[in-house]
Amino acid sequence: MKDINLYKPLAEKAKKDNLEVPAAHPDVFNITEETFNIYSSLYLEQKGFTEELKDKPGGKICNDCKSFFLAEENKKKIDKYKDVKFGNELERYFSSYIVALLNRLLCTKGNSARVRSERADKDNFHMPDFKIIRIQDEKVIAFFEFKSIFRPYVLISEMVDSSYKCYSHSLTLDDGSEDERQKLQKQKTLVEEEIGLDKVDYIYWYEMPCIKGVFWKEAQSVYTEMEGKEIYIRKEAEGDYSKSGRKISTTGKVYLSLVRMNPLTELITKYYNLAKF
Length: 277
Fold this sequence. Notes:
By secondary structure, the protein is of the alpha+beta class. It has one domain (2-275). The protein is 40% helix and 18% strand. It contains eight helices and nine strands. The strands form two sheets. It has a six-stranded mixed β-sheet with strand order 1-2-3-5-6-9. A hairpin with a 4-residue loop joins strand 2 (130-134) and strand 3. The radius of gyration is 19 Å and the shape is globular. It starts with a helix and ends with a helix.
């Protein structure tokens, strides 16, 4: 399965480098035959599906996941600073990897174009995280906002929406407080009015005990899906506030559907077509 095979080197590098994952489940970055089977059953066979989703896999993988993430000693204790450090490392891994994949594909197909990635939000915090630039003419071919999800919302069907599954709706956007809403709205306005909806993607590195991979969605599709969803305010947890009492974590969430996301292979194809001469 090409999508998982593309993701596997990314996961293996993170594992080899002993990347410190906050609240890491025991199977983090492990790619097995079961990974391929679940990816096929719960993602590929349901891609674009809008009706009732399949049940979670069940058995040992779900029992272990539930026991781990709901155990008192492993319940989510937010450390905003560790989360930010971890997120920055994943951004670095992914931005380097996507560029390497694109340049290898361009070379293999005999195309002279080459690309690099840069932070796009250095001068404006509300810009998407990264931009991909074609080196020969300095043309920006795409922007992307990067997210990483390594903790499933095990009880999402009980707490948020009975139609949601823990494997399918743990992808989040932060949209709770007025500040958070303004940040997302300002980025949306920038994308719509200055950058262009067709030039921006939202990319998720998704590492659940069951489903693993990189998934993405075009900005227009993200904003359309957001409009039909209510904001869920999660219970505040240890680490949401700094020592001075300032709130530093996001408690308002919008949950996006995994089966409405696109696979990594389609992202590579899209960026290749934008980069080539």
